[in-house]
Amino acid sequence: MQTYIARRILFGVVTLVGLSLLVSGMVRLIPGNAVTALAADTGTGMSQATLRSIEHQLGLDRPYPVQYWDWLTGIAHGDLGQSFLTGKSVGQQVRSTLPVTLEIAILSMVITAVVGITIGVVSAARQDTFFDYAIRTLSIAWLAIPSFAIGTLIVLVLSVVFKWLPPFGFVSIRHNPLKNLEQVMFPVLIIGLQLSAVVARFTRSATLEVMRDDYVRTARAKGLTEWLVFRRHIVRNALLPVITVLGTQLGFLLGGAVILETVFALPGFGSLTVNAVQ
């Protein structure tokens, strides 16, 4: 087991280093560099001497292997560098925006687990009924609609029909819980319900599979009520693979947060990522 864990960690490190080399190499294939982007962003003309001076300050005139090594050693020491646009520490900006995304992620995961597992178990208990067919149809329809389309539609309906928009910006839940929940309510619901559709379908399949096992038939033969059979034997065993699925949904959750934070103008890690890409 220890060898396997060590091998997986080593493989992860090699993968991250390879990805960083690939991304940094692709960036350098784009015409220009950070200095020319800064000059274009400010809209002011800069002389060649000024451009060369800024390049020297940022270390862009050094060979690429030296630049990459400096960046890698900085990352190893927890130094993410300075933003050449804002002049602020990248680590500081990440720390200031991460709580917003973490709050959305945690609340969305709670909704995903509660709604997805509940609906999945009930759908399996009422297999091939109208409720079961309705849940399966709604799950497919909900998954087919992109999260940014749902977010944009909600903003459009609220503004045009109800003449109301969710408050922009972000207030910490410690300072004003009601205002905070009003700001994150729609992104949390959209992400949580979309992921709950996946969890519900998986929970339904896992529950139906457990219901066919011999020990479930034995429990029923002993005279246990259907509620006790479900609670003690079916649900408890069916949830084991579902917990694994909930963990794998974390990546999709963060991806949805990136888009919806931009749609609802929340200053989270997702918005910071979009600004960084731009």
Please give a structural write-up:
- This protein is mainly α.
- Helix content is 78%, strand content 0%.
- The protein is built from eleven helices and no strands.
- Helix 5 packs antiparallel against helix 10 (226-263), helix 7 packs across helix 10 and helix 10 (226-263) crosses helix 11 (269-277).
- It is globular.
- The model has no long low-confidence stretch (mean pLDDT 80).
For the CA atoms, what is the radius of gyration? 25 Å
Largest sheet, in brief, is:
none
> What is the helix/strand order?
HHHHHHHHHHH
Strand element count: 0
**How many angstroms separate the termini?**
43 Å
The poorly predicted ranges are: none
Cα shape: globular
Mean pLDDT across the residues is: 80
Note the total helix count. 11
Oligomer: single chain
Strand content: under 5%
Strand-pairing-aware structural class? mainly alpha
What share of residues is helical?
A: over 70%
How would you summarize this macromolecular structure in one to three sentences?
With 278 residues, the chain is an all-alpha fold. The chain has helices spanning 2-29, 34-42, 48-58, 64-76, 90-125, 130-144, 147-160, 177-211, 214-221, 226-263, 269-277.
Topology:
Layout: H1 2-29, H2 34-42, H3 48-58, H4 64-76, H5 90-125, H6 130-144, H7 147-160, H8 177-211, H9 214-221, H10 226-263, H11 269-277
